[in-house]
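Researcher: Here's a chain I'd like modeled. Treat it as a single chain, no partners, no ligands.
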Amino acid sequence: MTQGNSTRCSEAISEMPCGQVDAGTTGRRSSGTRSRVPFVVGILLLCAAQPLLLRADDPPRAWHFSAEQLKPFWQSTTMYGETVLFVKHGSDELPRAPLLFPPTRILSVRSASGEVTYEEGRDYTWEAGSRELVLPAGSRVVCKAPADLRRQPGSQPFALTHRDGQGEILFGGGHEYHDMQTMVTYTYDAIWPVAAPTLAREQLARTLARLQEKKTLKIALLGDSISTGCNASGWARVPPYQPPYQDLLVQNLQAAYGARVTLDNFAVGGTDTTWGLANIGKVIDAAPDLVILAFGMNDSAGRSAEEYQANIRSMMDAVRSARPDTDFILLATMLGNRDWIALQQELFPQYRDKLAALCGPGCALADMTSVWEELLRRKNDWDLTGNGVNHPNDFGHRIYAQVLSALLIAQ
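Model: Modeled as a single isolated chain. Structure tokens:
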């Protein structure tokens, strides 16, 4: 399992190299994964060393894998570690935060690190039938005011301008948002209303056959900084040290099938489909059985859906010309912060639909876009974000892994 990088990281609208850490691997190869993660900076990218927060020579911490936590939540009755950020909107209001579903029973409420367990009544209250948790006076749970999640114009390295023009969105390049969030584990019996991914028996038949026959499965991942693992707690080297989604997927596949699974990660922060097309040769050279293409966040600064699709198609054509038996998963990205003026939110579903049109035998869609759209109908951006604008937190990385796992593991 590749542990977190010693960098701050956010997405970029365009990329500009600013040096590189080891063109080879930046992590050790123990569970069959490795990461090639150069430092990249762009118009809105911050990838600066953070010696006060992260140390490259710190030993990796243990992560306790749980297949139950990676079971797709829409196929479960237990929600593990759903994150919330409690916000107090007025002096006379109590801080509150929404869950995805009305709990039938709350099993635990903990700090995002897992190190502090909170008590019902003393630290939070909940009414049966409600999706909201409320913090009473004297609660030990972290809560913030809306102003805490904004900054004055020009006060941050990059202008993360709020859509309402009132300052900037607070940027968290390491574990700032993680430290403000709270995890809730609960049971529920509600139904998820969005069409969810299911086992891709026909689309990924070759990949599933390799797994079922316990042959080594070689995966190559090409994408942006979400796929480098940014803002997972393992990447940030803080408790609970959860790996990013791609490592969770590898662990889940190995546990489910008993097969050896390797992952070559060619993702680089700040990149888009134009960069991906220029670098697809690295994927071809890795001779993978399965390729995951995970772009869209940076393209959403303005690239048309037609150009986005053409770039993805060209990447696939290049791989198939060299390795015609390669399978593909096209990953439709999560949504960025709705209040960030730099992103054109309407492009995300357009990208998803263009990816879906490319799917068929040998190619499946991992639709994070539809899942994230529904998450944001029920929750706030700050409940789910890893950096404030366009990275998932631990909960989001697990959902990424669940969406991918649903295509590859029968439930």
